[in-house]
Write a structure and sequence with these properties.
Layout (H helix, E strand, L loop, with lengths): L1 H18 L1 E3 H8 L3 H13 L4 E3 L2 E3 L4 H8 L2 H12 L7 E4 L3 H8 L7 E5 L2 H7 L5 E5 L3 E3 L4 E3 L1 H7 L4 E6 L3 E3 L3 E4 L2 H12 L1 E7 L11 E4 L6 E4 L5 H8 L4 E4 L1
Parallel strand pairs: 4-5, 4-9, 5-6, 9-12, 12-14, 14-15
Antiparallel strand pairs: 1-3, 2-3, 7-8, 10-11, 11-13
Helix pairs in contact: 1-4, 2-3, 5-6, 6-7
């Protein structure tokens, strides 16, 4: 069944992120399926650029970096994604920026109908393809492998053609004083463009990002509608965040 295949693929990618390489034989034993089935799964994953097959197994590609980030603070990211998804209504118009936490939002939209999503994230597409009630529009642009995102002038022009009710962003770091920051300027440009076309803008980021500062400043926290993070922030950080002028939700 399709659900079983997706679960196997997720297990394969999770193990690949941890170990870097794996064998068909060990996967067959672990997943309880034939080696023929494992080879078919690996071929499908390779066709999507998620791994590279080797003689007797597979190894990680550049996508491993993203897989590792998905496994870090996975419980917190899932709760944040679920909380953000609660803001989305049927027939809503949404922009979702790249990032592993942002992609978790889409994983929790299975019950929605008529939702249209504009995104520059290939991770979002991976989740959205499982939910027929979602319509996804990709921005186009230059593929940034590390973040699994589309950036550059083409992406920015596409964003300018749309208006939405909600926009969700990720981040490499955020603080009350320095605001929202990220690692590369093209990512900052996408976030700024999405905010300009959205009635509400929400940062979704786990608490490990608080206190860190990325290379590029994006915007002040007060420029956002709100921040959704987990309960791992200490009391001082919570107070600073709430005093920054932004709505803060801790899940």
């Amino acid at each position: 069944m399709a659900t079983e295949r997706v679960e196997r693929e997720s297990a394969i990618l999770a193990r690949l992120a941890r170990e870097g390489s794996l064998s068909v034989a060990s996967l067959s034993r672990e997943l309880g399926v034939s080696e023929v089935t494992v080879r078919t799964d690996l071929r499908n994953l390779e066709d999507r650029g998620l791994l590279a097959r080797t003689h007797g197994g597979a190894e990680a590609t550049g996508y491993r970096n993203v897989l590792e980030r998905q496994l870090q603070h996975s419980g917190e990211k899932e709760r944040i994604g679920a909380a953000a998804a609660e803001l989305v209504q049927d027939d809503d118009l949404v922009m979702i920026e790249a990032g592993t936490t942002c992609a978790e939002i889409v994983a929790h939209l299975g019950g929605r109908r008529g939702v249209r999503i504009l995104t520059n994230s290939t991770l979002v597409v991976r989740h959205a393809r499982l939910h027929p009630g979602l319509t996804v529009v990709l921005t186009g642009g230059t593929f940034h492998r590390t973040s699994e995102s589309l950036v550059g002038p083409v992406a920015l022009r596409a964003i300018e053609d749309f208006n939405v009710r909600l926009a969700f962003f990720g981040t490499d770091g955020f603080t009350a004083g320095r605001g929202l920051t990220t690692a590369f300027s093209e990512g900052a440009e996408v976030i700024q463009a999405m905010r300009a076309r959205a009635a509400e803008s929400w940062l979704v980021a786990d608490s490990s990002k608080y206190g860190k500062a990325g290379f590029v400043r994006v915007m002040d926290l007060a420029d956002l509608t709100g921040v959704i993070t987990d309960a791992g922030l200490d009391d001082t950080a919570r107070t600073d965040l709430m005093n920054s002028g932004v709505s803060a939700r801790f899940v």
